[in-house]
What we know:
By secondary structure, the protein is an all-alpha fold. It has helices at 14-32, 39-46, 50-54, 60-74, 85-112, 123-131, 134-149, 159-176, 182-201.
Amino acid sequence: MTPSTGPVRQRRRGPELEAALLDAAWDELVEAGFAKLTMESVASRAGTGIAVLYRRWANKDQLVLAALEHYRNTHPVDVPDTGTLRGDLLAALTGMGQARAAFFAVTAAAAFAGLLTGTGLTPAQARDRILGDQRHSRIRTIYQRAHDRGEIDLERIPPAVLALPFDLVRHDLLMDLEPLKPARIRSIVDEIFLPLVRARRDGADPAEAR
């Protein structure tokens, strides 16, 4: 017998298969939108059977949440190291706006189209799942460097203040669905955030200045 010379299709398994399924779900979400996305359309795009999807995700809401997480994890935002807190924040917030504008647009469109109905999650729980813990580690890295340089005193700054610049950028991305203008980023850093943290570093309580 002569062995077949035709192409041999390799079966994807484990993480490779799951990544392919989630990539297909993301592409389907971008091109068709959440309302038109189905388990069948994702399976067809991924070149697999629908049972493969249902073994991993109970419904399309769970699949789409996983696809959003996967896209975020595979497209990280760089952590800058410019040598100053101001420079790091300007670079980080600019990069965040540019890298995450499309992600937030797709996520917002899915949410308004009915995502979360079948997840059992509150909006806050869904936000934490989609955004993940990576944002906290990036923020900590930037602020720890600034603390080590003596630019800020982390022991005197509440976590809500440290999160403020990034929360404002996320807010603008969700509202405008496009990268922030440079002037807006400078305003967040220079007019809102830095005065707060410098006052605490110098021993003043911003609440007492009112």
